Amino acid sequence: MRAYPSLERTFARLAALEGASGILGWDSQTLMPDGAAEGRADQLAVLRGLAHEILTGPEMADRLAAARDEALDPGQRANLAEMARSHRHAASVPGDLVEASSRAVSKAEMTWRTARADSDFARLAPDLAEVLRLQREIGQAKGAALGLSPYDALLDGYDPGMRRAVIDPIFAVLRAELPGLVAAIAERQAQEPAPLPLAGPFPVEAQRGIGLALMTAAGFDFTRGRLDVSLHPFCGGATDDVRITTRYDESDVMRALMGVLHETGHALYEQGRPAAWRTQPAGQARGMTLHESQSLIVEMQACRSAEFFRYLAPLLRDSLGRSGPEWEAENLHRLGTRVAPGLIRVDADEATYPAHILLRYDLETAMIAGDLAVADLPGAFNEGLHKLLGVTPPNDRLGCLQDIHWPGGAWGYFPTYTLGALTAAQLFAAARGAVPDLMAGLAQGDFGPLRGWLRRTIHARGSLAETGTIIAEATGAPLGPEAFLRHLRARYLEA
Amino acid sequence: MRAYPSLERTFARLAALEGASGILGWDSQTLMPDGAAEGRADQLAVLRGLAHEILTGPEMADRLAAARDEALDPGQRANLAEMARSHRHAASVPGDLVEASSRAVSKAEMTWRTARADSDFARLAPDLAEVLRLQREIGQAKGAALGLSPYDALLDGYDPGMRRAVIDPIFAVLRAELPGLVAAIAERQAQEPAPLPLAGPFPVEAQRGIGLALMTAAGFDFTRGRLDVSLHPFCGGATDDVRITTRYDESDVMRALMGVLHETGHALYEQGRPAAWRTQPAGQARGMTLHESQSLIVEMQACRSAEFFRYLAPLLRDSLGRSGPEWEAENLHRLGTRVAPGLIRVDADEATYPAHILLRYDLETAMIAGDLAVADLPGAFNEGLHKLLGVTPPNDRLGCLQDIHWPGGAWGYFPTYTLGALTAAQLFAAARGAVPDLMAGLAQGDFGPLRGWLRRTIHARGSLAETGTIIAEATGAPLGPEAFLRHLRARYLEA
To answer: Which UniProt keywords apply (chains A, B) (predicted)?
Structure first.
């Protein structure tokens, strides 16, 4: 009996467990009553524990080794490599540590919800310290097995192959270039007349209707996905059941819509993964740098272009029953490309966003290394943000409590946001070169040309190749900061 | 190391898997996009398969045997007996049969949705035949292991200890008594002036608001549950996350509300189970006869009483902004206690409802025995309904396609509806005798006295005693048809 086919069956079961956890996780953040939190934490911990048992079962290493000697086509070979990678990651962490971490994360996420609302970091601190303690244990265990530092080992879990040694020189360029660039943009925008504000209220139902129209235009498949509401927008769910969320602010229509476009970018990646590999590791999204590149190529590259606002303006006017100069495409475009240092990462413009990531990257690498204690996080956060952007959070709700990632156990995740932004800029430049009618399409709400190029070069490749290979083959160059900096100069200083 | 504590840990994991399946099953019927059906079927099949593996693992029988010789208190002893029962049920069915059945059910349920809408039995027939084939296999395998007929073995899975030998004599009394009783009620109601109809439309949001108010009055805990919408109302979810559904008809306000009250009865049972045993078999609801008794004691015994309509009438008038003689309590009571043979089981009044069950019981026992083929089901259904109630479905949508149970794999479930109705009548008579202010409470929307009695005598007992013991201790008599027949005579012929 050949080992490879039996591995495919086992990994299909793992994919089903992953899908079940995805839907339960989605439910936790959208619909679940508060009193169900403890039971839900048990459910997720048990599912993760069982997946871990299957992935690290006594015969798994033998079957993986045996399959390596079997005749496989290149797709199967890539799939086997991904199976082995998953196994290595899982086998390096004891099962009780996995379950303990899952439970600690569920508890900390629930605490975070109220601690954030009340701006009460002290309430979260013990739960967060427990999550960090377990993340450090996981990083050390994985690092020892994979020959990586603890932080690189955690990072590799989100973005296979990514290393601090790759990130640090790229981030050094951003640290050097961005402050001057942001200042130049601010100076130029200060010399222009201020864009006209959009006066609310904007009813939630109308906002939701526009969001659904934009998702449809972008090519979201509603037979295999949904749009719902959560405190922190995300793209989750399962294969063939991709669920994105947003949150509505009746005073700010652009916020929810740009959020919807962002998550739609993630969703298009999920819905465009190779169907033939849908239950297999090779059919999954490649990693978070590419994933974030797909959200940002839609939200930032495509949908903050002057061309896209020519499509969006009449849609907004008709859907909201508004008119006037503030609803003209040019004004909307200027509103949508306003650059100003602010406190909240998810509200940041694309020029100041990397500063939020540089800060979190510095802080989480220090916490994982044991150089920064949880108790000292609020002070370090506020000081760091002031140094990087010149603004200081007046409280922790607007400071280190704003993101779910740390209580959510997603350590090593933050840098992929900015790596994704750089990748998006590099991909979009390549797409514009390769697809002549791309921008003309966007001006009419036709995402087909862009989506077609992304399907071919990114989505349909799943995990059949490495991130570096996919980027290099799509753009003709390795990942770097140059395309992103060129994009900022072109959009904000040269247009 | 003692076996019993390790069994408790294992069964807590099983409870978490059960809860995960409960939420995923709820999602399938409320929110899931159509294209996700195949993936969801995989998820549920894998979860059930894993639970089955755990329950039938090589050391489970040994641990159960070892625990029997350990010092246990009475609660632990009852818990161990339930563990052993679950194990016996599971171990008698091969794992691949469990997974095949789960997949067949998921597929048939999806087909049923469109086949029912289009009244196209032929479309469902192949999927239904496959579900039946696997149910017969399961019944035979369980029956052989438990020393039961295949049908009794399936029945025992829903209602531990229930047997055809118990049901048949009780159902024989109903077969003999009900036709005459229904005719007498119809004759009496025909002599009275017809109740005034309620003219719609009734907006869904207003109906939902009334439903939530009734759930609150009944004591539903919204921190541990939800109300949503599905095609076929049900009570599902997980421990501490009890989710009931209803469906709204803008032309019929009583339909959704009585549905909400019915499912609220189920939910009160789930929310009132013994907290100390929440993750253990002894903490689960005892079986479907008692479960249905809890929905019917709320919907039929309490909420179709003249007293309850004195509370409901002003609530409806205020919530819907209506007035007039048709909205007086007496008219609403007469509308809510109208007896008339009809086609649809879930719309049937309590006097004709048992006929729908007698029919389904006859048909499903014949199908499990191999005496009735799926192809012959529509004809047998229509003929049987005509014989029992004098009405004939004009199409299969209003006939054998109306219920999800058979495509849903719930064979051996139907009789528990009527056994539940008999139990509800017997319990309510006992409650009225034991709690003097029970009816006065209902007249003011105060369910506290009834709920308190049910919590003590039924809910909090979980599975710590047998169904027969629970009923006998609560009512002073074994389960029989007499209290139900007395209730019908008192409400419909003597009031």
So the answer is: Carboxypeptidase, Hydrolase, Metal-binding, Metalloprotease, Protease, Zinc
